[in-house]
Task: structure prediction
Amino acid sequence: MSHAKASVTANPCRARPILAILLAALFAVALAAASVTAARAEADYAERAQALVAPYIEAGLFSGVILVARDGRPVFRRAYGLADREWEVPNTPQTHFRIGSLTKAFTAAAVLKLAEAGRLGLDDPVRRWVPSVPEAWAGVSLRHLLQHRSGIINFTALPNYYDQIARVDHTPAQIVALTAGDPLLFPPGERFEYSNTNYVLLGMVIEAASGLSYEAYLRETILAPLGLKETGYDDLTVILPRRAAGYRRGRAQWRNAVPMAASSAYAAGALYSTVDDLLAWDEALAGPRLLSDASRAAMFDDRGTGYGLGWFVSRAFGKQSDTKPGAKTSGHRVYGHAGSIPGFLSINDVYPDDHLTVIVLSNTETAPAQKIARDLASLHFGHYAAPEAIVLEDVILDRYPGTYRLGPRAFLTVAREGKGSGLTARATGEPAFPFVPESDRTFVSKVADMRLTFETEPDGTPTGLILHRDGRDRTGPRVTEDEAKAVLAAPPRQHREIAIDRTRLPALTGRYALGPGVEIAVTVEGGRIFAQATRQPRNELVPEGERDFFLRGSDAQITFTADEAGRVTGLILHQGGYDTEAPRRPEADGPTPGLGPRAGSPASVKGSN
Result:
């Protein structure tokens, strides 16, 4: 023992390498253990994510590709369903999808690149680059266009857009001309209102400032430098390998989506991509590879509107704001955008502080893409709680199948699931959703924010139900299948425009609470009345009565309600066979306007297309 101590003391340098080797070995072991732990956590997440998505697949609600990435590396990447139903070709992670309005982030980045090069300024008036626009748009800047604060009407909200305009090729100038004759909805910069026309104009600005076509500038300045070989402008005349076809549900079967020319979406929504390319795109925007720090800061600065430059900016999984419906005052920061184009839905959500990305690309119009994306993020953050099912006896489950009336032309058909202890429920014109029991009378959907509560007699016989959906309860009595068929077989009422006293229209203006975080804003301009739901296009209301209006090219109608003194109290939205009441929000600047005694009688009950 004494000899060993003397030896070490005599050769201190010899002990240091041994200690270093020991520490290195311990570090390697710890690193390996951490790696194994991380791998297990990723495997566990992937397994739970697959279980979360499975009910959507079983219900036939989703077809497409999903990718969840942490620190730029996929932790869940799966393809589902068919890219081509006619040839039964499956989707793969390499499948190309039309991404719709996810295009706007690319357009915004292209404008920022031109600004960095000194080719344009974000506060330049649009008329500097597109001189053909109306004089009334002289106050509209490029920043207004980027942030949807221009006041220019959205051309995709025109009544004949999907039936006629979208089906044929248009030049950008022809698209802009569709709304150039209409007045601005509000002075530029006054408020946010989403309009695809803004980004068509930005595409024209890019071409004018760069001297290249929109497609060429995007390819040479963004796509090629970032190596995004699977992203491009969707020219339908070009053979594109692994291109997904788009589908929709109609009359309880799959149908091809209505045709849409890429040029009718242009810089607002004409790109295609894959999940891997979109992940690479998100990663490029997180660092200095594409944009300067100043440009990236501008891109994600919403200036209080909830929309930056090509991205929605918000918080998720936080406390609800008391001042702004739907806003969050805490939680995880998220930059995201949705894309919706005939046959396709897409979501790209980035949680910058958590370095988490969730991408959902679907080639069906019925896919609940937003819910899937948010639930997958919630699962990653540990907030997600799947509904816990209980097992009920057949004698209880067999009580509930039948038909329930939810609206003038809306029914819910409840059936046994066929296996297990659940039910399915299918609303008129929609696919069937699976439900699992929470109790002997309450069932919750595994794939949508819906809950069924059955009303029963003392002996358990159901007499009706309550459907909780989108934050609203709808009550429906049980009816016979023949009664439902008779109602649906009757032709919908035809609508006819009539002349009314338009000086009375201002009494109808205001904001009407349709549901949690959703309201309808009613405005009057130039003797015409318009309605716009939260984050939806604005539509003109056509009078068919003093208080009854319909929308051309849509099954929606609105009836305004008033009290005995003629004060406007709310409206009823008739759409999809449902009647939805929306009370009028109190105005801060004065009393509720009155319709007058003539229009103050009780509202008539009317059907819906």
